[in-house]
Design brief:
There is one protein chain. The chain has ten helices and 21 strands. The chain has two domains: 6-59 and 352-375, Urease, subunit C, domain 1; 61-343, TIM Barrel. A hairpin with a 2-residue loop joins β17 and β18. It is globular. The chain has an eight-stranded parallel β-sheet. By secondary structure, it is α/β, with parallel strands linked by helices.
Amino acid sequence: MSDPDLHAIAADRVFDGAATHHDAAVVIEGARIAQVLARDELSASIPVHELPPGCWIAPGFIDLQVNGGGDVLFNAEPTPECIAAIVAAHRAFGTTSLLPTLITDADETMAAALKAVQTMLPREPGILGIHLEGPFLSPDKPGVHPRAFIRLPKPHHLRMLTSLHDGVTLVTLAPEQMPPGFIAELTAAGAKVALGHSMATYAQTRAAIAEGLTGFTHLFNAMRPLGSREPGPIAAALERPEAWYGLIVDGEHVDPAMLRLALRGVGHPVLVTDAMPPVGGTGAGFKLFGEDITVRDGRCTTRTGTLAGSTLDMATAVRNSVALLQVPLETALRMASAEPANILGLGGWLGRLAPGYRADIVAFDPSDMTVFATWVAGRR
């Protein structure tokens, strides 16, 4: 008898996170990948899911910045049910794991969000932790973050920000607003720290990097611009090999020419969506802190025209990276899978198709990035 937990997926192309295999298959045993091999080497006893001609399979996408999806917003409903709806909505676009992202809000909402994520971690393999984007930001670069909630950290915030067990906590903050040693304490406790919504100078950014800051949330957006006499955080990011920077490749947030410049840096570019409720939903707009957000031609904006997240999904981000940034498909796929896995410290078991890795897989048409199917921990 065949093992019911043993099966295979076969496709014309298998991108394993490093190399592309022609006419190949991925063998899955339970939740893990057992083998990647040529299709004609498959044992006749293994059930095979044959994908359509021309189809590719690749590591499932990992999104570090997801505010909402499926018509729900994490800030509005920081509950396990909301998280489940967001995960389901993004899975249709090849995202097999993500960080639910809470933007600047009250302490009570932050605590509820952390509790909801903690509840979902053992239940939902698609949840890797939480991204707290704020509230410790610059009042000079708030974007759509409510100024009333932007504040300086107090002693209890360190405990709150490091309270999640078994998952990753990513904190976006403005380092110039932080007391000395705060970033070092966060990173020493295991949190990942990124700069965002910040007016930090180049020197202040370098000091934060020395304390353990490694990331830059939606590079170029809501931060001090690159200047000839004050290079600011963008120059600091692009010159550091250990740095990573999230790129929103929707053609709206940042001009493609600037994103192509970022790709010439020595750090690690990562695709993120900054997605809002319309992704995978049916609504034409949504409310953010009581304000109507209009969605038109792919732009989410307030009535004054301020961008409020995006309607971007990861499959489209990959497609746009090929079309707008002129990168090979394999490079775009790495920026959506292996790179974010490595950034979160999960690169030893996530973000590749290799023996022992969790079987998170996306099947798609490479011509337009239409997603045919996803598998999470070996289950379709």
